[in-house]
Amino acid sequence: MGNEPVLTRATQVARELADPLRLLVLQTLASEGPHTASRLAETLRVTGPRLGNHLARLRDAGLVDVEHTGRHAVYRLADADLGDVLTALLCYAGSDSGQESPRPPRDIVRTCYDHTAGLLGVRLFAWLVDRGALRAPDGRTDEVTLGRDPAALTEIGVDPSAITAGRRRLAVACLDRTHLLPHLGGELGRVILDTLIRDDVLRRGRGDRVLTVTPAGAGFLTALLPGLDLDVT
């Protein structure tokens, strides 16, 4: 918002909200979380080019942010407070949407092929990048490389010197289907999952992609990733 006068900014926001499709885009992002452009187009039943024009306006107005992860462009609300604005607007207009919007499934932990996905996978990837163990993709590719401090991998039981990719890529950013943020794939993603299972942090469930967090694992993971709510019962 910078130093724009409040009335000027309010007028700009109102102008963008005046279009039904742009309002639907914002309502969808507020109630269901981040979406790729293709998923938004499918959900709202509009063509990609038409939606793209409206997304560009919302982005230029500072109402949505876009993050490029490999080949995907993921859109999300630029400010969580915008959800409250939408709720108040729809409530004033007489919509039943004044009630709390349904949230997407928590999807705490599961596998994606042979690596960790769900909320835990997303948080682990972000932690590895923040700690300097990995370097995130540059937006033009999904390739992940070792960062300035690969030794940080030892904090989750992985010896970086023992990892050999062979013909497989070492590490890739894999877009999580629920959270629309990257989790770690590739050979390193497989090694990390195998290590967490070996150390009894995670256990495989009965389903093909089901993982459960052990009580001891919950303690380890919440210490490693502050604020992570695993809801282990």
From TrEMBL:
Transmembrane segments: none
Domain HTH arsR-type: 2-97
GO MF annotation, one: DNA-binding transcription factor activity
Domain of life: Bacteria
GO biological process, one term: response to lead ion
NCBIfam families: HTH_metalloreg
Protein name from the UniProt record: Transcriptional regulator
Native organism: Virgisporangium aurantiacum
